[in-house]
Design goal:
This protein is mainly alpha-helical. It has seven helices and five strands.
């Protein structure tokens, strides 16, 4: 859902459809991989059924661009093969399908550092809370680095967000994440525009 703004702005000539269910990765239900959503078996099954219906619908739809993207659910070694199989099936069905890697989350709700008047807390407090969690960021980068070589059609987000090895979470004072892991409208628009020359989406 957090990619809607960026994709819509970068590709105004496209109709952008989002297939979304909270916490439900597109791999769940395929190749023996099932994610436990922590909401009971009924919720897990709803995720699986959504994914299977989505794939069936896509394979019956006219050839188009399909972007597979989700949060870091499951270890790369667990989901890479499943993801590769889904992409292969979509491409065999005529779709230009690829994976857009997950953006590097700050693991802290950075919106808090701009939502409190500066006269209420000190500059030192603002500086300490307006940065991402270094350990979480390191793990996020390692996850993407592990997943990337396992997939044939993968676009990494790091060139847009972390071009010099340091990940960006603000742009001229505007926060680029709306919570601890979802892009804000500004962040989505900025990063997708930066990735546009790397995304295999024809004009």
């Amino acid at each position: 859902m957090h990619l809607i703004a960026g994709l819509s702005e970068a590709y105004p000539e496209y109709n952008v459809y989002i297939v979304y269910l909270s916490g439900c990765p597109p791999q769940s239900g395929f190749g023996g991989f099932v994610r436990d959503l922590g909401k009971g078996q009924e919720a897990n099954q709803a995720c699986i059924e959504r994914n299977k219906k989505a794939l069936t619908w896509l394979l019956s739809y006219r050839p188009s661009v399909v972007v597979l993207s989700n949060a870091k659910r499951g270890k790369p070694v667990e989901i890479a093969g499943v993801t590769e199989a889904i992409i292969a099936e979509l491409r065999a069905g005529g779709h230009n399908a690829f994976v857009l890697g997950d953006f590097i989350r700050p693991a802290r709700s950075l919106i808090n550092c701009v939502s409190v008047p500066d006269w209420l807390i000190s500059e030192e407090q603002i500086r300490s809370r307006c940065v991402g969690d270094p350990e979480a960021i390191r793990q996020e980068l390692e996850y993407n680095a592990d997943l990337s070589p396992r997939l044939s059609f993968y676009v990494a987000p790091e060139p847009a967000q972390c071009p010099d090895g340091k990940c960006q979470y603000f742009d001229r004072g505007t926060v680029l994440f709306r919570d601890d892991h979802h892009l804000s409208t500004t962040g989505s628009t900025l990063f997708i525009e930066r990735l546009k020359d790397k995304l295999p989406i024809p004009p």
